[in-house]
Structures are given as structure tokens and as C-alpha cells.
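User: Hey, my collaborator sent me this sequence without any context and asked if I could get a structure. I don't really work with proteins. Can you help?
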Amino acid sequence: QVQLVESGGGLVQPGGSLRLSCAASGSILSSNTMGWYRQAPGKERELVAAATSGGSINYADSVKGRFTISRDNAKNTVYLQMNSLKPEDTAVYYCNAREIRSLIRYEYWGQGTQVTVSS
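Assistant: No problem. I've predicted the 3D structure and written it out in C-alpha cell form, which is a compact way to encode the shape of the chain:
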């Protein structure tokens, strides 16, 4: 069973920065997609950023230019560097991992970490 452990959430002022980390443990495939989703109160869960083990990266338009996703494949860890944070970035951020084994998609979620952007 793959487990995702997140860290790095907290309270930050507008314009500030946070760095989220997510480490995958267990028998996750070396070929996978890891990323970050977020869900704010009263809003739908949305993709923030995702990165494949092969190096492809995708960002939500709302965070493009401010957030940077990166991976350390040797550590099975994905990071989200969040700069120029805005109050609308306030949400619970969830690490997500996806892989395909024998034509079956598997998806894993972290426990979530709260990011609050407020003065």
C-alpha cells in the first residue's frame, strides 16, 4: 500500500511563501504522476500542479507563475513551492499520486495540509 505523507502547511501573510513536501512510501511504481490538489471551503477540489516521473509538468492557470512543482525521484518526493501567496490560495492541500498497474489505475491521497493566507 502506498502512503503519502505531507508537510509544510501553515499560516502565511499575503505575498509570502510556503513549501509543501510529500513523500511517497510503499511500493509505488517508478513511473507515476504526483501532484497537488486543493479544496477551499465551499469550493470544488481542484488540481494545482502535477508532475510525471518522466518530467512533464502541468499547472492550474490560477497558480502558474507563482507555484513551482518539483520532484526528487530518488526520494519519491514531490514539492510545491508557493510564492506570492494570495488569500484565495487558502485551502487544504492534498498530495496525490497516480499509477497504472496491469491496466488498472491506482490513486493515492495524502492526509491534507492546511494553507492559510491571511493578514
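In plain terms: The radius of gyration is 14 Å. You can pass these C-alpha cells on to your collaborator as they are.
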